[in-house]
């Protein structure tokens, strides 16, 4: 518990955390308001159209939580106080993942609620498993993404490089795999963020509808890839000088 308390103090004592939290919620909810105001046909899926904007901000927040420690050399003090580096990294990752989950739920239910208020006549039920997965599942995807952000930040140590890699990978490189002749759609299905989107939407607009997994299989794959990257990061953090 003391490790979590220390990480909580470090995380919430900087302004960048609060700005990221604000943007992570405001951007998707604001887009949901625009969709509700202008869309001819509104459903639960369309209310969640902006969740990826929030996820990008969460990736930045998670990366900053570890790279700023390397930048200002506070990570050395952390490892001196806590010789078990894996425990320190686990505490930081757990706290960031929990915060990301809360932000994701605020984004998803906030987006749904503002659309419901603006368009009370629209059919926006949350009574079945599929629509609940679309909404409540956003927090899970945010949490997994945050773990990936911490892992990449720990591996690269530099904020610019880690943020650029995560954003370019998720927003551009994964979609460019669709351009590979013949095998592009098959490769695209195994991209981690595509799998995360498939879990929420049942298949994004750029993904192959013949995906080899269902929504829950996609979530398991996304989580497995993230865990693999985090384990590599934990090994490197343990062996490399701070």
Automatic annotation (TrEMBL):
Organism taxonomic ancestry: Bacteria, Bacillati, Actinomycetota, Actinomycetes, Pseudonocardiales
Domain of life: Bacteria
Record-annotated membrane-spanning stretches: 18-39, 51-72, 93-114, 134-156, 163-183, 216-237
Alphabetically ordered keywords of this record: Membrane, Transmembrane, Transmembrane helix
Name by which UniProt lists this protein: ABC transporter permease
Coiled coil: none
Protein's organism: Saccharopolyspora halophila
